[in-house]
TrEMBL record, chain A:
Protein name, as recorded: Multisubunit sodium/proton antiporter, MrpG subunit
Regions that span the bilayer: 6-28, 69-90
Lineage: Bacteria, Pseudomonadati, Thermodesulfobacteriota, Desulfobacteria, Desulfobacterales
Pfam families in the record: PhaG_MnhG_YufB
Alphabetical list of PANTHER family matching this protein: ANTIPORTER SUBUNIT MNHG2-RELATED
Coiled coil: none
From TrEMBL, chain B:
One Pfam family, short name: MNHE
Record-given protein name: Multisubunit sodium/proton antiporter, MrpE subunit
Family indicated by similarity: Belongs to the CPA3 antiporters (TC 2.A.63) subunit E family.
Keyword check for Transferase: no
Record GO terms (molecular function): monoatomic cation transmembrane transporter activity
Keywords, ordered alphabetically: Cell membrane, Membrane, Transmembrane, Transmembrane helix
Subcellular location: Cell membrane
Membrane topology note: Multi-pass membrane protein
From TrEMBL, chain C:
GO MF annotation, one: sodium:proton antiporter activity
Similarity section: Belongs to the CPA3 antiporters (TC 2.A.63) subunit F family.
Record membrane topology: Multi-pass membrane protein
Transport listed as a keyword: yes
Name this polypeptide is given: Multisubunit sodium/proton antiporter, MrpF subunit
Source species of the chain: Desulfatibacillum alkenivorans DSM 16219
TM region positions: 34-54, 61-82
Amino acid sequence: MLDVLTVLLTLGGLVFFAGATMGILRFPDFYTRLHAAGKLDTLGALLTMAGLAVYNLDPFSMATLLTSLKIGLAVGFIFIASPTATHAIVDAGVRAGLRPWVKQEDEQQ
Amino acid sequence: MKPIDLEELSTNRREILQATQPPPKNPYVQKGLSLGISFLLLFGAWVLLSGKFDAFHLSLGAASSLFVAWISRDLLFPSGDVATLARSMAGVAAYTPWLLLQIVKSNIHVLRIAFARNPERLIHPHIISMHTKLKGEIPLVTFANSITLTPGTITIQVSAGNEVRIHALDYTTGDMDALREMESRVARAFGESD
Amino acid sequence: MHGFLLGAALFLILLMALSLYRAAYGPTVVDRLVGANAIGSKTVVLLIIIGHLFSREDMFVDIALAYAMLNFIAVLAASRYFHKRKGLDAVEEEITPRIHWD
């Protein structure tokens, strides 16, 4: 039962990680790539690490509970740190004056 | 447009904060409470990370947490206002499930674009500026980080006068309502809604 | 279950190799930073999986936590450094918003 939950959560996380990588490779400019990196990587890490924390609980004891709580701590840290890191990168890009990619038809409006 | 002066920004923010918060009642009580909260948090983190419960390790943890709490006594919770802290913690706990739902929704949206045959056909990137009513530093940071995590938008800058600049991946007219709703939810979570 | 975790780890390594393209070929320095950040966030998960594969979760979780913090600080430091436009062949103009909401 726990194994099924682990597999589902981990597979879901890997799908989001794959989407993040595809986005980083395929989006047209730096700003749009950051959307993929900042959002999809965060949720991917949340799902995969939740799956691993559940798998870790299997022979239930104080030690495994502590390890799972530590994984939870790492997830919490990533949830605060990842948007902040994204913001730092986009700030560097804006201060350097990188022009965002805009669609031709939107440009003419 | 002139570049934003960071010095000026931080003093502005400090003035706004000082104007909105009531003056501390008893400085010694406030300092003690601030120290106590920092100590409890740090000691909890120590226990979680060490995983050893004998007297030797616990006393080492208590000593080092007390030392770090004393060094950073004016850093973590300078006001030491327990009531406000507890209320905003409860507010954040109520806000998190809604945020998680929004994160999943927006992630599926971006995921669909990333796997599309021609992603450039589907996106309409724009830079948007909006004004926010939020005043405190923590609510502003929460709002900015929430914007980055949710509906296809990334915060670029939060400048003086509370102007938030956003890069939207797929700009639609519904974005504004979504961000306004998020703003009012953050305001409610931190008790800033009037 | 062991095989599934091994497969997940190998898939993560494949994704990291793909992200390495962005980290190596840019085109701008901030693009490389995006690629490096993506690799770092996958490494945290990979470290926990490796811990499970070696049955040393307790040790590798600590390493993963420390790596997450190190990655965050590295990205912050690098993006602060490039505030001074080093290595960025960008146009010298202010980026202004196109749409204004009150």
